[in-house]
Amino acid sequence: MSTPRVWRCRQHRFEIGIRPLILGIVNATPDSFSDGGRYDPIAHALQLIADGADLLDIGGESTRPGSQSVTVEEELHRVIPVIREVAQQTHTPISIDTSKAEVARQAIDAGAVIINDVTGLRDPAMPTVAKATGAGLIVMHMQGTPATMQIDPQYRDVVREVSDYLKERFRELTDFGIDPETISPDPGIGFGKTVEQNLQLLANLDRIGTGELADRPLTLGVSRKGFISKAVGRSGSADPIANRVAGSLALACFGTASGAANILRVHDVRETADAVALYTRMHELRT
């Protein structure tokens, strides 16, 4: 990557070079696949900042395979107090992980500056919220919905189809009037893909960010996902999350080394920050 990629998120302007931004995951849900509501979200958010998170991604609706949607009211009840309190205690930029325009709007009013939408802004009101607020946008590819996405996902060429979808959404959103520098595409690893399809996407991340996406920072979310256990033959373990951490770090470093992953959405912030810092240092010593 010859020049930094600019990402505008309301009052924030990031220039992302060889070192990716680390987006720490904060689940305000009772049924997340990774922590199942074990953590106090505010305390966990502050700990992630101490561990090295550049940004926080706060979500109130699980998107694990097979999960069901919650109401706008329930999602607001879960996330708004967390966003408001974290925004008061820290200057770390906050992302709201939601597919609902009303949740996004109220989250931004509470202090969020980024909208992370796993549906690629399917809510017809979401582009209006994004345009009006100038929020950063993570626009993800997903085949189906969280409830159906892992039921026999099919592609002829997963890399081309995901790339084409993200380019089409980029054109639609910028034609709507959204600032192109606010948009970060996300290939949606683990969302409507088989193990092999996920690996194909990861091996070809540089093919995602081409054409009109060439200067856009790409978000990569592989942290603790089930395909990692399957890919290394450790599925069915009594502690599946522990068996996914090493693979998560390996893929984060691979994405960084490829120059194609610019924002890493992760659970294990300290471990990822250390791995990326060491990779970045070694890269600098070689150039």
What does this structure look like?
The protein is α/β, with parallel strands linked by helices and 287 residues long. The protein has one domain (19-285): Dihydropteroate synthase-like (TIM Barrel, Alpha-Beta Barrel). It is 41% helix and 16% strand. It contains 10 helices and 10 strands. It has helices spanning 41-51, 72-89, 101-110, 126-133, 158-176, 195-203, 205-208, 226-231, 245-258, 269-286, and strands at 5-9, 12-16, 21-27, 55-59, 94-97, 114-117, 136-140, 183-186, 219-220, 263-266. The strands form 2 sheets. It has an 8-stranded parallel sheet with strand order 8-7-6-5-4-3-10-9. The protein has a two-stranded antiparallel ribbon with strand order 1-2. It is globular, with a radius of gyration of 17 Å. The relative contact order is 0.14. One of its GO terms (biological process) is tetrahydrofolate biosynthetic process. Pfam families: Pterin_bind (PF00809). Residues 20-277 form the Pterin-binding domain.
Class by alpha and beta content? alpha/beta
Using the coordinates shown, work out and report the CATH topology. Answer: TIM Barrel
Distance between the termini: 13 Å
Largest sheet: 8 strands, parallel
- Percentage of residues assigned to helices: 40-55%
Task: Compute the number of helices.
Answer: 10
Percent of residues in beta strands: 15-25%
Tally the beta strands.
10
Oligomeric status:
single chain
Please state how the strands of the largest beta sheet are arranged side by side: 8-7-6-5-4-3-10-9
The CATH first-level class comes to Alpha Beta
Low-confidence stretches: none
Number of spatially distinct domains: 1
Task: Spell out the helices and strands N to C.
Answer: EEEHEHEHEHEHEHHEHHEH
The radius of gyration over CA amounts to: 17 Å
The CATH homologous superfamily corresponds to Dihydropteroate synthase-like
Report the principal-axis shape. globular
Return the CATH architecture. Alpha-Beta Barrel
- Overall pLDDT score: 92
Cofactor: Mg(2+)
Pathway: Cofactor biosynthesis; tetrahydrofolate biosynthesis; 7,8-dihydrofolate from 2-amino-4-hydroxy-6-hydroxymethyl-7,8-dihydropteridine diphosphate and 4-aminobenzoate: step 1/2
Keywords: Folate biosynthesis, Magnesium, Metal-binding, Transferase
Family: Belongs to the DHPS family.
